[in-house]
Amino acid sequence: MSIDLEALYIDLHRHPELSFQETRTAGVIARELTALGLEFVEGLGRTGIATVIRSGDGPVVWLRADMDALPVEELTGLPYASTVHGVDPAGHDVPVMHACGHDMHVTALLGALERLQETQGEWSGTVVAVFQPAEEHGAGSQAMIADGVLDRFPRPDIVLGQHLTPLPAGTIGVRPGTQMAASDGLTVTLLGRGGHGSRPHSTIDPVVMAAATVMRLQTVVSREVDPRGVAVVTVGSIHAGLKNNIIPAEAKLELSLRYPDDDARADVMTRVERVIRAEAAASGAEREPVIQIDHTLPPTINDPAATARLTAAFDTAFGTGTVVDPGMFTGSEDVSWFAREAGVPLVFWFWGGLDPQVYADAVARGTVNEDIPTNHSAYFAPILHPTIERGVDALVVAAREFLG
Ligand code: ZN
Ligand code: ZN
Prior knowledge:
Elements: H1 5-14, H2 23-35, E1 40-44, E2 48-55, E3 60-66, E4 85-87, E5 93-95, H3 102-118, E6 125-132, H4 140-146, H5 149-152, E7 158-168, E8 172-173, E9 177-180, E10 182-191, E11 195-196, H6 206-224, E12 232-240, E13 246-247, E14 250-259, H7 262-282, E15 290-297, E16 300-302, H8 304-318, E17 323-324, H9 336-342, E18 346-354, H10 356-365, H11 368-371, H12 387-402
Helix pairs in contact: 1-3, 3-12, 6-7, 8-12
The structure holds zinc ion (ZN) (2 copies).
C-alpha cells in the first residue's frame, strides 16, 4: 500500500505547528515510517525525527526536510486552509499557517523514502532522512546536532535538501556557490539617561540616539559595501518610551543582516558595530550599547562539483530546460549546519509550486512581484500537482545520483 501523498499534504497543511512545537507533525511522520516498516528516532532536537534505509556498502546520503509553520493567518481561501491558532514564544495567541511550504517538504520526503525503499535492490549505500524542527527560528538543525544526530546515525558523505518556491511547478532552481545568504539577528540596546520631557538637557535621549543609529546604518550597504557584492542591513523593530513627556532610559533595535559568505559577514558585522558604538558616543552615552546576537545562520553554499552532477541528473530525468539558475536568495536557511559540522558537500535546490499559466501571465504583465505570493505570504498556495510528484522525484533522482 502506498502513501496517499495528497491526503498527507492536506492533513499537514490543515494542522500547522510553530517552531519546536511540531509534535503532531512528528507523530504523522512516525506513523508513516512505521507503516513503511522503518525504524526511527524521535525527539531529536526536541521534536525532530530521523530514519535510515540501508542497502549494503556505499555512500551515505542525507535527505533533509523541515517541518515547522509560521505565525501567519491564512487568506488563501483554499478548502483545506488552516484555521489553527498556536502560542508563540512570547506567550501570545497567534494564527498559524504553513506559509513556507514545509508541509510540502515533509510530504515529498516521505514519498521519496517509500520509493527508495521499493527500489532498494537498485542502489547501494545508506539513506538517512532527517525531519528537522524549527527552521524558521534558525535553531532546529543545531538542536538536532546537539542531540547527537550526526553520531547516532551514519555520518553523511553529502547532505541534500530542497525548498518550495514561487517558480512554475515542474521547474527546479539551483546554482553552484552561494544559493542563500548568511544571516544574523541582532538585538541592540541603546543606553541613555531618562528624565522629564521638559528637561532634555538633563537626559541622554535614547530616542534620538536610536533615530540617528537607524539612519546611519543605512549607509553601511549604500556607502561602504562594494556595490558588486550583496548585503542587507534591515532594522525591523524599534522600541522606546511609553509617554510623550518622559524621556526613556533606553531604546531597543532589532536588526536583520544578510551576506553571501563568511568574509562578508565579518566585514558587515564590524561596520554595523562601529556605527552603533559611534552614534552612542556622539550622543554622549555614558554606557556602551549592548549588542546581542540572537541567531546566526551560515550561508547556504552549494558544492560546485556536486551541483554540476545533480543538475545533469535533473536534466536527464526531467528534460533539458527544467533546471534554471534562480540567482542568490537573500533569505537564509539552517540546513548547512549538518554539512558544515560533518565537513561534507551540500546541495540545496528549489522547486516550483505555481500554476505555470498563472506564472506566465504575471511575467507577461510584468506583475510577478504584485501578483505572485511568495513564501511567508498569507496567500502562499502551491498547486498540489505536479508539485508533490516533482518534489518526490527530485529527491529520489538526487539520492540515486549520489548513492552507489
Ligand atoms: Zn520560511
Ligand atoms: Zn522555509
